[in-house]
Design brief:
Layout (H helix, E strand, L loop, with lengths): L6 E6 L3 E6 L8 E6 L2 E4 L19 E2 L7 E2 L2 H11 L3 H7 L7 H15 L24 H18 L8 H14 L1 E4 L5 E6 L1 H4 L2 E2 L5 E6 L2 E6 L10 E2 L8 H12 L6 H5 L3 H4 L11 H21 L5 H15 L8 H16 L3 H18 L5 H16 L3 H18 L5 H11 L1
Parallel strand pairs: 9-12
Antiparallel strand pairs: 1-2, 3-11, 4-8, 5-6, 7-8, 10-11
Helix pairs in contact: 3-4, 3-5, 4-5, 10-11, 10-12, 11-12, 12-13, 13-14, 14-15, 15-16
The structure holds zinc ion (3 copies).
């Protein structure tokens, strides 16, 4: 029997339903896999990845009609048609004006799938899409308004191809997608698309998770990153674990409507290091620190919004200015400094300023290793970016060293036979 034999659904005290191990799992062992119930490739990656299987390769063939979807071969094109037909002619008709959000695109696919497929799918062995939590009663007016905008877009762009249920059931479905949808990322954590993985959504959250979810095409794979014993609950992380306890819980409350009670959240063990201040002659005034944290959280939010309309050089300046200001009080290892350093690195990569990206990346990697757990995709992807930058700049010794560090984590998190690992090994030989 398959690896699903080792896990079961159970009622987790205080958490509602959850997943539990029935046997021992060693570090790096696969607990289960879950094919996407449905998924959608992000528009930015069109032409780089197959719209159907998410395979990354050159020379994909275009959909002859819209010329906007790309496939490995005829099988992938045929396989994707039940989903692609929701968009193909609408994209032609609307042209530049076709702009539904990825959530709307994903939800349209769920509706189409529910229409044609009435039985339980292989993605729903432990939890069905119908059973998804919606937290609908907890939504504030702002969230409800966003959902109404999504429903309007769904009607606008998909009405020719979908027959909808009433507004109330659509509201409920969008609320379910908002707290149960996944994003698929590549090995450098670049966004590839959105998907529904019902069985993966069964797992509860912890800031010290014992499993990690990675993707092989459109299949989610769940591996142990800590030893798991029979009877242990299986926990994944829903959020980026870089930030201090208060920030993590704000995020969890805002997106998933709960506060975490994991070991990390009760001991707040790592918070002091995450909020590290500079070594000055006099210890900093606590009020100054609180004010700077407030400023930092504001800047993080402001930058997130500015990404949609500012130019790369304006954004880079925003990073530099905020780091200069925070740097009067915060150490370079402080997570708010790291957040802006990471953003600056991203802009350099986007502008193909490899030296600039490397300069920022070198500042990030050691503090990342301290703040994140040993098998973290954030750490692995940072080693990988650094390794690839070094190799590109012909600093081969440093490159190999960094790629080896990435591989050591990925062999546990992705499994030693993952195609990403073969690709990286090939890069090391060149
Ligand atoms: Zn394909
Ligand atoms: Zn098409
Ligand atoms: Zn926690």
């Amino acid at each position: 029997m398959g690896p699903s034999e080792g896990i079961e659904r159970f009622d987790s005290p205080g958490k509602g339903r959850g997943m539990r191990a029935l046997r021992h799992f060693a570090l790096g062992e696969l607990l289960f896999t879950c094919p996407a119930y449905t998924c959608v490739l992000t528009t930015n990656e069109r032409g780089n990845h197959c719209d159907h299987c998410f395979n990354r390769k050159e020379g994909l063939s275009k959909c002859g009609k819209c010329k906007l979807a790309f496939y490995c071969n005829v099988e992938c094109q045929k396989g994707d048609w039940p989903m692609h037909k929701l968009e193909c002619s609408a994209m032609c008709a609307y042209g530049e004006k076709w702009n539904p959000s990825e959530t709307v695109r994903l939800t349209a696919r769920i509706l189409a799938k529910q229409k044609t497929c009435k039985e339980r799918t292989p993605s729903e062995r432990f939890l069905t899409v119908k059973e998804f939590e919606s937290h609908f009663s907890k939504l504030d007016n702002e969230k409800k308004e966003l959902i109404q905008n999504d429903i309007a877009a769904l009607h606008h762009f998909y009405s020719k191809n979908l027959h909808y249920s009433d507004n109330a059931s659509l509201e409920f479905l969008f609320a379910q997608v908002n707290c149960n949808g996944f994003t698929i990322e590549d090995e450098e954590l670049s966004h590839l698309g959105s998907a529904i993985f019902p069985d993966v959504a069964l797992m509860n959250h912890s800031c010290c998770p014992n499993v990690i979810v990675t993707y092989r095409g459109t299949v989610a794979e769940v591996r142990a990153v800590q030893e798991i014993n029979p009877g242990d609950e299986v926990f994944t992380s829903y959020i980026d674990l870089l930030y201090p306890t208060a920030d993590r819980n704000d995020r969890l409350k805002d997106s998933y409507f709960f506060s975490c009670d994991c070991r990390e959240c009760s001991t707040k063990e790592k918070d002091a290091a995450k909020l590290e201040t500079r070594k000055l002659n006099d210890p900093p005034n606590p009020k100054d620190v609180r004010d700077m944290v407030k400023y930092a959280r504001g800047v993080v939010e402001e930058f997130r919004r500015a990404k949609h309309f500012k130019s790369p050089s304006e954004l880079l300046e925003m990073c530099e200015l905020s780091m200069e200001k925070m740097g009067t009080l915060f150490a370079e290892t402080n997570v708010y400094m790291l957040h802006m350093t990471y953003q600056a690195m991203g802009i350099c990569l986007y502008m193909q300023d490899w030296e600039g990206a490397l300069k920022y990346g070198e500042k990030i990697i050691q503090p990342y290793r301290k703040h994140y757990s040993p098998y973290s995709l954030n750490v692995a992807s940072m080693w990988l970016k650094l390794g690839r930058l070094y190799m590109g700049l012909e600093k081969t010794t440093s490159g190999i060293k960094a790629l080896k560090k990435a591989l050591a984590i990925m062999e546990i998190a992705h499994g030693p036979d993952h195609p990403y690992i073969a690709e990286i090994k090939k890069e090391m030989e060149q």
